[in-house]
Amino acid sequence: TQNKKELRRLADLYLRLTQYDDAMQTLEKVLQLDPTSFDLKCKIGECKIQKLEVKVQELQEKLKKSPQDAKLKQELQKAIQTKSDIEVQEYDLQAKAQPTNYEIRFKLGTALYQADRLDEAIVNLQQSMKDVKYSKKSYACMGQAFLKKKEFELAIEQFKSLLALLSSKDSDYRDALYSLGS
Description:
There is one protein chain. This protein is mainly alpha-helical. It has helices at residues 2-16, 20-33, 38-65, 70-97, 102-114, 118-128, 132-148, 152-165, 173-181. The protein is built from 9 helices and no strands.
């Protein structure tokens, strides 16, 4: 167990230094010592996602400097798609292992929304609402999903429910009101 602790500490250091490949390799070594650790599997998935997020951000910065570069635009789209696919895959595995973890349900729901898999997104967002921490964001995302599906009455219900949870002083209030108006 001492070896596992040291390796986990090393992986955390790699993460802080944004050395995702080294962090994932180290976490894989820990996983070999503790193959049933769900926490480690989740952490490896988060590393994959963070690494892709950094790549997307780097490409976005490059594109700001060369907005006409078609090859760069294509590379950015591919990176965004890959990140989206990995998010759905990782969060789906986590949700299957922990079906009542509402944080994972929320992450899966938003990842599915980003991937335009709206019906699946709505199902997961409905489940994530059971946790107060995610209810406001879930209502907002579900409302947007229903808007995309052109199911306007259902979108209106979501935005009204969201507004009922917010006070006019909340930073999200104006966005919710705008979405309702849409």
